[in-house]
Design brief:
Chain lengths: 104, 104
């Protein structure tokens, strides 16, 4: 059986004072990590379009795929990731992270 | 350009009194929807394995893919989905839903 990838699901709600330009910078910097950190084998993102009103204020979802937990463990303390977090942090109202090993 | 799919990301936290058997039933019934509701073109799920402690208590992530928002709009009021929600609801402590159109 093929090993199942690890999904890293990241939700953001930005602060009221964060500008559209600052949000765009964060979106681009997150996307830039895939070329800077080995082990990211999938990356996509988007902004909330659910009509259900169950988003709890989160507006952005980033969906990062690693081959396994070891690759995720190497990503978290990677200097490029830490640099991104420093850019992100002043603008973050709320964050939610859940990782799972994909099952059918 | 190929149209981008719509991702439907659903997080659950179950009530303290919900048993492992009841959780398993919910996991199975959610997975059963893909054979009952047309328009689900992808389905996977898993339980949280993030070490970051940013899960806000959510334990389960379900990741459902539709070809477009119209398929999601047909899914939400579908009788099979509503039946599932009735089974789920008594056990739900928290739910979060975010949908996004996948971008690279």
């Amino acid at each position: 059986m093929e090993p199942k990838p690890l999904r890293h699901v990241v939700l953001f709600k930005f602060k009221d004072g964060t500008t559209a330009d600052q949000v765009r910078t964060i979106e681009e910097k997150f996307g830039g990590l895939k070329s800077r950190i080995p082990g990211i084998i999938g990356y996509e993102w988007g902004t909330n379009v659910s009509p259900e009103m169950l988003d709890q204020g989160f507006t952005h979802c980033f969906f990062v795929t690693f081959p396994d937990a070891a690759a995720r463990d190497a990503y978290l303390p990677h200097p490029a990731h830490k640099e991104f977090v420093e850019v992100l942090k002043p603008h973050l109202d709320k964050v939610l992270v859940i990782d799972y090993v994909a099952r059918d």
